[in-house]
Design brief:
The structure is a homotetramer of 124-residue chains. Chain A contains no helices and eight strands. By secondary structure, the first copy, chain A, is mainly beta.
Chain lengths: 124, 124, 124, 124
């Protein structure tokens, strides 16, 4: 299929609760960047995190192969550093080819089990 | 009414939990593509699914009549193959006439009853 | 303030559960069209509902005064007819001046208490 | 990083429940404006609130430093006046430089624990 989407996406909301169900990956509190690359060329994604009280951290880099989707958990980012829990952050994703990005959180704190999801803001 | 919307829509998020309430269609875990065709001509919709570790599957085809809405459950797609449960996927919907698409999930796993919904990304 | 937004908005998702908490307006199952008119002129809003198996119904008409917001419950629409419960529908809102529209559902069925919200699709 | 986004954002939905968990800031009912300033210049944000039955209130002003995010709770706004609870409102955010805005509510009323979030409408 032809490439679809934009090359820069922004998610102003970001927060991974440290609490919630443990030991069941599907249900632990997490945030996910859902990335779709419909085109014939691999997408090299560069992720930068922004915080309230210190400078940006990154880039984190991943590759989404041609005609594949990747649902990347922010919880799994490790290099250059893990995403701190219970901390406000925001995210910019940049790609060398057009992609589409959607952001989802599952919050499994016992008092607040909930899902949220929204298409990211397509900047470019 | 005149046609409204776009002819290609993208939903990067996709995941149907296998768990949840059984035997009550309204409350079983499901994902829905809500499609609105405001125009005077039937909309022929072609749906392609993308996965993390294999090539695209499709097209699935449906027709949304003129001046009608269809809330199509991904759970009900059968041809060319059912949508696998507990599996990350993404969706592209293409139409011969402009339509509007919104995506909703109801997750009725006992630990995580929740709703999410967002307008799909309008690519074209 | 100057007028802000668009004059046609589309919400492809629509569903009012008949079940849920009764007797507490804040918590009964409902859907809301949140309309903001930032401009100096009253906004005359015309609402048309679309269904899966019959023709469009409307217009429902409301006025959002200059520099006011109206959070209009679909549950409260009466003329030309109430919105059927437990029924898939979709909505087009048209305004004589630019407005911004967001759509929210509160689902208070005992098994599925949840909120969803998304900005509507701005068509014109 | 270069500036990203728009200079006027609109959130037609707004409602802070007075009920819910007390004494735990993370879990009390709240609404948040998540603002990201990716650029090299501080963003001066001016916030105006709209209501159903009285004129606009504001401006509330905050500064989001260069290359920082601010997750600003509507609950914390005090000047020129606090945001009333259990009251429909809507919000316009204006910035001197491009920013991205996302809106989130956490509703912790015992009967309705839920999250909602959506990217705001980018007007300019």
């Amino acid at each position: 299929m032809e490439p679809t989407g934009k090359t820069r996406w922004v998610i102003a909301e970001g927060y991974i609760p440290s609490g919630g169900i443990q030991g069941d990956r599907a249900l632990e509190s997490h945030e996910t960047f859902c990335i779709l690359n419909t085109g014939p060329e691999d997408a090299r994604i560069s992720i930068t995190l922004f915080f309230a009280d210190r400078g940006p951290v990154g880039p984190y880099t991943v590759t989404v192969p041609a005609e594949r989707t990747m649902h990347l958990r922010a919880n799994d980012l490790e290099d250059p550093e893990p995403v701190p829990r219970d901390t406000d952050y925001a995210t910019v994703l940049e790609s060398n080819v057009p992609v589409v990005v959607q952001h989802t959180r599952l919050d499994s704190r016992p008092e607040s089990f909930a899902l949220l999801s929204t298409v990211a803001y397509p900047a470019v």
